[in-house]
Write a structure and sequence with these properties.
Elements: E1 19-22, E2 27-30, E3 33-34, H1 35-38, H2 43-52, H3 58-70, H4 76-81, H5 91-105, H6 114-139, H7 153-162, H8 168-180, H9 188-198, H10 203-214, H11 222-233, H12 239-248, H13 266-282, H14 286-304, H15 314-324, H16 332-353
Antiparallel strand pairs: 1-2, 2-3
Bound molecules: coenzyme A.
Coenzyme A (COA) is lined by residues 7, 218-219, 222, 247, 250, 252-259, 310, 313-315.
Length: 365
């Protein structure tokens, strides 16, 4: 039997046209366009790009946005059924159940034809935010807020969550968050989703595989981990002890390190900037300053111990941003999923279009 690459590290499993990462130079592109440029667009435009493989013309984007806004409402029976989900520990459990229930209400759920997949794509992208906001409000004994079709994806999500319209900067931050979270090549959840799609299972099932994999603290769950860590550390005077103790015991500092990036994650830079701007608008830099100091201590600890520097990843400053947007930690992984859904769907469609069942071998010992 050939050499085993633990964790499939360094293994190239398939060809993709969806995204490109240069982990040494810190470059990320969706469909050939740099993440820095995409971050200033709308989530609808970036979703179109991911799904259809090219930027939409103005009228195509308008038509796509209208379709998404029309499909934001969720079946009230779904909300009724999910009222009793455990939400406050980890909202992703409720979202996972919701997608499973959604499949029963979706007349296309078993159809994996191109037309049916596009219809499901619109419904899924449009409804993820509505479900997360509705569960949050139900879990807190608040009235569920209907989506506002005049608001963009990010602004509408914050509106449904809070019941009041966000500031322009908060709306921009939420939109950027969804864009930055939308796609990242063969990360664990996307790989899990592609394995499911490769068996010609349907889109809802593939997405549930993605959701279950995103949940883990070494993947999408790290964003919640960062928020919990900020609470635990709470003051700059506690940072050194926290970091040193974790490193001594070989425990991971959440929001740092990456399998592919050996340098600064380009998404983390954009998150850092928007998190700082939101903190400044609020007039409360507490979480941002704490995070910046953790980053500095982490860097110096690594260098002093002759370890390669370990940089913040996508989850570090997004965790800080969520704190400043007053989002509770148990929502963090579900909000990540709201952004990731368009990338997941793009991979699902790419897998169906040129399928070979994904089935590696194991070395028997
Ligand atoms: C992302 C992650 C899973 C990548 O894992 P990986 O490629 O298998 O790399 P490893 O876990 O083997 O880490 C390599 C080395 O860096 C260290 N390291 C990596 N991330 C670290 C972190 N966040 N905190 C402390 N040490 C870390 C490891 O201890 C290991 O050290 P060693 O060479 O002395 O044994 C890992 O960096 C991690 O667990 N990060 C924290 C969770 C997180 O933020 N996940 C979100 C990813 S986007």
């Amino acid at each position: 039997m050939k050499h085993v690459n633990k964790g499939l590290e360094g293994v190239v499993a398939l060809d993709t046209q969806i995204s490109f990462i240069d982990g040494v130079q810190g470059i990320l592109k969706y469909r050939g366009i740099e993440i820095e440029k995409l971050a200033d667009m709308s989530y609808d435009a970036v979703s179109y790009l991911l799904i259809y493989g090219r930027m939409p013309a103005a009228e195509e984007l308008e038509e796509f946005s209208i379709k998404l806004r029309k499909e934001r409402n969720v079946n009230p029976h779904l909300l009724e059924m999910l009222k009793f989900c455990d939400f406050e520990n980890e909202s992703l459990d409720a979202l996972r159940t919701a997608i499973s229930v959604c499949a029963h209400f979706d007349e296309d759920s078993h159809d994996i034809s191109e037309q049916a997949n596009i219809r499901k794509t619109i419904r899924l992208i449009a409804r993820f935010p509505t479900m997360v906001a509705a569960f949050y409000r139900m879990a807190n004994g608040l009235e569920v807020i209907a989506p506002d079709p005049s608001l963009a994806h990010g602004a509408n999500f914050l509106y449904m969550l809070r019941g009041t319209r966000p500031t322009d900067l908060e709306a921009e931050a939420m939109e950027k968050d969804f864009i930055l979270s939308a796609e990242h090549e063969l990360n664990p959840s996307t790989f899990a989703l592609r394995i499911t799609a490769s068996t010609l299972s349907d889109m809802h099932s593939a997405i549930i595989s993605g959701l279950c994999t995103l949940k883990g603290p070494l993947h999408g769950g790290a964003r919640k981990g960062v928020m919990d860590m900020l609470d635990d550390i709470s003051s700059t005077s506690n940072i050194e002890v926290y970091v040193q103790q974790h490193l001594e015991h070989k425990q991971k500092i959440m929001g740092f390190g990456h399998r592919v990036y050996k340098t600064y994650d380009p998404r983390a830079r954009i998150y850092k900037d928007i998190a700082m701007r939101v903190a400044m608008e609020k007039g409360d830099n507490r979480w941002f300053d704490l995070a910046r100091e953790i980053e500095s201590v982490m860097y110096h600890e690594m260098v002093e111990n002759k370890h390669k520097p370990i940089y913040p990843n996508v989850d570090f400053y997004s965790g800080v941003l969520y704190k400043d947007l007053e989002i509770p930690p148990y929502l963090a992984t579900s909000i990540f999923a709201i952004g990731r859904i368009s990338g997941w769907i793009a991979h699902c469609l790419e897998q169906y279009a040129d399928n070979k069942v994904i089935r590696p071998r194991a070395h028997f010992v």
